[in-house]
Amino acid sequence: MLAFTGSRLDRADNDRADPERLAGYMNWRARLLALDGLMPGMDQAGALAWGTLADAPEDAELVFLGLDGGKPCFACVPAAGDAAPRLANPAVWQAMASLTPDDLAIYGGARSIVDWHARHRFCAQCGGTTRIAKGGWQRECNQCAASHFPRTDPVAIMLVEYDGRLMLGRGKGWPEGRFSALAGFVEPGESIEEGVAREVLEESGVKVRDVTYIASQPWPFPSQLMIGCHGYADDDALVVDETELAEIRWFTREEVAASLAGDGPFAAPPAQAIAHHLLTWWRDR
C-alpha cells in the first residue's frame, strides 16, 4: 500500500451539505485530530492523538474529516499554512516513518485540507474574506458569494526506459548519490501522457513514447496527486536542464535492485514515496 492511501474514514459526502446533520455531529462523541500547526500530534504509543471539540479554540474553523466507526472526526484550521513547494522538514519525514499506514492516510488528508483553508481566507475573484462551508470542503466569499474548492495539483512522476536501463535524476541541492524518477506538474491543456513527454524532454532532452499509467499517490505537501507513469525513450543522449537538476544518469536493472536493497550505486527514494514503489515495480517486471 502506498503511503497516504487507505484511510479508514467514511467521508460522508452527503452529510457535508446538510448543516443540521453537521451540527448534530458536533457532540460529545466527536473527535478532534491533534495538530501542532500542520504537524501531527502523537500519543505515547506513537499513534495519531485525538481530543474532543472542547479542545478547539473558541473561534476555530473546523473541518469535518468524516466518520470513524460512526464517530465524527474534525480538525482545526491552523493560523497559517505552508506555501513551501517541497517537503523539507525532517520532523515530517520522522512522523511519516513512524505512523501506521492507516494513521498516515488520515493525517495526509487532514493536512491537505486544513492547509488549503489556512491559505485561502480571501477570495481569488474579488479579494473579500471567505468563510468555511460544506463542512470544510468549500469556502464561500462573504462579498461576492463566489465558491472556492480545495485544489489538488496533478504531478506526473515517470520512469523512462531505454535498452533495459532506467533514467533517474538528482535534483539541485540533493545529497550526492540521491537519485529518483523525474517529475513535474501537468500543465493546463495537457493530458497526463503529454505532460510526461514534455517534462522529460525539458529536463533531459530525451523524447518519450508509449507512456502508460502505473499507480498514483496523494502527497500532502501541500496537496498534490503523484501520477506514476512509465515510458520508453528513443535514444539515451542526455541534455540536462541544469536549472532544475544536478545530474541525470542511466541505471541497469541490477543497479536499481542493488540500490533498493541499500547496496547500490545510488541512494534510492524513501519507502513512503511513490518513486520507491515505481522502482520496485520496474525491478520486478
UniProtKB/TrEMBL annotation:
E.C. number, please?
3.6.1.22
Single annotated GO MF: hydrolase activity
Q: Which residues form the Nudix hydrolase domain?
A: 150-274
Q: Keywords assigned by UniProt? A: Hydrolase, Magnesium, Metal-binding, NAD
**Record's catalysed reaction(s):** a 5'-end NAD(+)-phospho-ribonucleoside in mRNA + H2O = a 5'-end phospho-adenosine-phospho-ribonucleoside in mRNA + beta-nicotinamide D-ribonucleotide + 2 H(+)
Give the superkingdom in one word: Bacteria
Q: Which cofactor does it need?
A: Zn(2+); Mg(2+)
EC class, as a word, reads: hydrolase
What Gene3D superfamilies does this protein's entry cite? 3.90.79.20, Nucleoside Triphosphate Pyrophosphohydrolase (3.90.79.10)
**InterPro entries attached here?**
NAD-cap_RNA_hydrolase_NudC (IPR050241), NADH_PPase-like_N (IPR015375), NudC-like_C (IPR049734), NUDIX_hydrolase-like_dom_sf (IPR015797), NUDIX_hydrolase_CS (IPR020084), NUDIX_hydrolase_dom (IPR000086), Znr_NADH_PPase (IPR015376)
Q: Where are the transmembrane segments?
A: none
Membership in a protein family: Belongs to the Nudix hydrolase family. NudC subfamily.
> Sorted alphabetically, which NCBIfam families does this protein's record hold?
PRK00241.1
Protein name in UniProt: NAD(+) diphosphatase
Q: Which gene encodes it?
A: nudC
